[in-house]
Structure formats: structure tokens, C-alpha cells
Amino acid sequence: MATKEAYLDSFSPYIYVPKNGGVEIFSKILHEIKYTMVDGLLMGPCDKSKYDTISLFINDRYYFKLSPDSYVLDIGYGDKCFLPFQYN
Predict the structure, then answer these.
(1) Backbone torsion region of residue 69, taken as left when φ is above 0, otherwise alpha when ψ lies between -120 and 50, otherwise beta
(2) Average pLDDT, stretch 58-66?
(3) Helix/strand/coil (H/E/C) assignment for every residue in 49-76
(4) Could you point out which of 27, 59, 70, 78 has its C-alpha 20 to 30 Å from the C-alpha of 17?
(5) pLDDT at position 81
(6) Where are the domains of the chain?
(7) Max CA-CA distance within the chain?
């Protein structure tokens, strides 16, 4: 049986985006970021100054802001950080 290193605690760290329109959303959020997939995880540079704050308006009611501190996560991959975005 193959083993795999644990990345995060038992909670789900993902920020889910709808599959319909998800490519457009990713291109807006990560428009100038060079990101790659590593072991099934979306990874980008750890320099948080390269990222923008993301503003979301949810259910026509709630305004939600995500700063790079909340979505650029260092999980020990050297100069690559985990970006917890995934299609829903």
C-alpha cells in the first residue's frame, strides 16, 4: 500500500468555485500568478504581495473579503504555497 504525506488537518481547507464559469473565475483571481498542480494540489508562489485581495458577494446579501494571508498557505513545499481553490 502506498503512503502519502499529510498536508493539512482533518478539516476541508478548500474554497469551492462553481464548475460552470470556474475557469473564468480562476483566471480573474490568479490572472498573473504562475501556478501548477503538485500531487493534486494547486500551488503558487509564496510571495503574498503577488496576490490580490478577493472580494465576493454571496447570495446578494453578504460581502466577503479574502486577503492573501487567508488563502496562500505554506505547507512546507519550499517556494510553493497551497492555493485552496477547487471546483465544486
Answers:
(1) alpha
(2) 86
(3) HHCCCEEEEECCCEEEEECHHHHCEEEE
(4) 78
(5) 95
(6) 15-87
(7) 48
